[in-house]
Design a protein that fits this description.
D-Maltodextrin-Binding Protein, domain 2; DNA-binding; DNA-binding transcription factor activity; elongated; 5-stranded mixed β-sheet
C-alpha cells in the first residue's frame, strides 16, 4: 500500500510550546520564554496531545513531568525541531547576504575571454559565494535545472527573461588560416563559398546552423558544406587554425588569432552584427542576494571599463594635431 509522506496541515502546531514546557518543567516559564500567556501555552499543549492521541505531561499543583509518551516524543521531536530551526537560519542567511552557491550556464566560448576575469574578481570581492560554471551550448531551463542565471548571445535569450548586457554588439566573421587561403582562392562573394570547405556547427536542437550574411539591406542565409561539424565555436575555431576550412564565429573569440596572424578574416563587408552577449535570469522578485551581488559586480566593471575607454579616447583626442 502506498504510504502518504505528506505532513498534514497543523502537524507541527504546539511542538515549540511542548519543547519549552519540557525544558523548563513549568508552563509559566515556557510562556515567558515564548512571549505568550500561560493559558495559550496550555491550550497549545492540549491541542498537541489531542492530535497525538496521548498525554505528554503529568501535571500536579506543584510540578510538571513527562509521561512515557512525552519522553518518547521529546527524544524525537527536539532534534527534528532543532534541524528545522537550523534550516530556517540557513535559508534566512542566504536571503539576507551574498553567500551560497551561484550556478551559471554559459557557452564554452565565453569562458576564457569574458567570464574568467569577471569570475576571478567577483570571487575575490564575495568570498562567501561559490561559483559553479556549467559550460555547454544547450539552452537549458534555468529553474528546472537549478541555475541562478545564464549567459548567451542576445538572439537566443527568451523574451520573458531579464537580460543584462555583458558586451557591445559584435559581428560574426568568416576566418581561415593563411595556409588554407594559400591552397584555395580567397572568397570575394558569398557564392564563392560553394568552392570552399566550410566548418559548421550543430545547434542544441539538432539542426546544423546555416551561415548568416548581410548584403546591403538583405539578410542572407547560406547553406554550406565541409569536412567538420562541431558542437561549439572553440572546436570549430581550432579546426580553422589547423587549416581544415573556413569558419564563421563571433568576432571576439577570433580577435587574438586574427591579430597574431593565425587566422585571416574574409568576406568582411558581408559580416552580420549580433546583439552581443547577455547575462539573463527569470525574475527580479525571486532574486537572491548572491545573484544581485553578481549583477552589481558586472555593472560596476562595465562602468569602470567605460571610464577607462573614455580616458583613452581623451588622450588620443588631445594627441591629435590640428590640420
Amino acid at each position: 500500500m502506498k504510504q502518504n509522506f505528506t505532513v498534514r496541515q497543523g502537524a507541527l502546531d504546539g511542538v515549540e510550546a511542548f519543547l519549552s514546557v519540557a525544558q523548563h518543567r513549568n508552563f509559566r516559564r515556557a510562556a515567558a520564554e515564548l512571549g505568550v500567556t500561560p493559558s495559550a501555552i496550555s491550550q497549545a499543549v492540549r491541542t498537541l496531545e489531542a492530535r497525538v492521541g496521548a498525554a505528554l505531561f503529568i501535571r500536579t499543583t506543584r510540578s510538571v513531568g513527562l509521561t512515557e509518551a512525552g519522553a518518547q516524543f521529546l527524544s524525537r521531536a527536539k532534534p527534528a525541531f532543532e534541524e528545522l530551526l537550523a534550516a530556517s537560519n540557513v535559508a534566512r542567511d542566504l536571503g539576507q547576504r551574498p553567500s551560497g552557491l551561484l550556478r551559471l550556464t554559459v557557452p564554452r566560448a565565453v569562458v576564457p575571454i569574458l567570464l574568467e576575469p569577471l569570475i576571478a574578481s567577483f570571487c575575490a570581492a564575495y568570498p562567501e559565494v561559490e561559483v559553479e560554471i556549467s559550460a555547454g551550448e544547450e539552452l537549458v531551463d534555468l529553474a528546472a535545472k537549478g541555475f541562478d542565471a545564464g549567459v548567451r548571445m542576445g538572439q537566443f535569450v527568451a523574451a520573458d527573461m531579464i537580460a543584462v548586457r555583458l558586451t557591445r554588439p559584435f559581428p560574426f566573421v568568416v576566418v581561415g588560416s593563411p595556409d588554407y587561403l594559400r591552397r584555395h582562392k580567397r572568397p570575394e562573394r558569398i557564392d564563392d563559398l560553394r568552392q570552399h570547405a566550410c566548418l559548421r556547427i550543430r545547434r542544441s536542437n539538432g539542426s546544423i546552423a546555416p551561415w548568416s550574411f548581410v548584403d546591403g539591406n538583405k539578410t542572407i542565409e547560406a547553406i554550406v558544406s565541409g569536412p567538420l561539424i562541431a558542437h561549439d565555436f572553440p572546436t570549430m575555431l581550432g579546426a580553422a587554425v589547423q587549416g581544415m576550412g573556413l569558419a564563421q564565429v563571433p568576432a571576439p573569440i577570433a580577435a587574438n588569432l586574427v591579430k597574431t596572424g593565425k587566422l585571416v578574416q574574409v568576406l568582411k563587408s558581408f559580416a552580420p552584427t549580433t546583439p552581443g552577449v547577455f547575462l539573463y535570469y527569470p525574475s527580479r522578485h525571486q532574486m537572491m542576494p548572491k545573484l544581485r551581488a553578481f549583477i552589481d559586480h558586472v555593472k560596476g566593471r562595465q562602468v569602470a571599463a567605460a571610464k577607462t575607454r573614455g580616458r583613452a579616447d581623451d588622450r588620443r583626442t588631445r594627441g591629435m594635431k590640428p590640420r
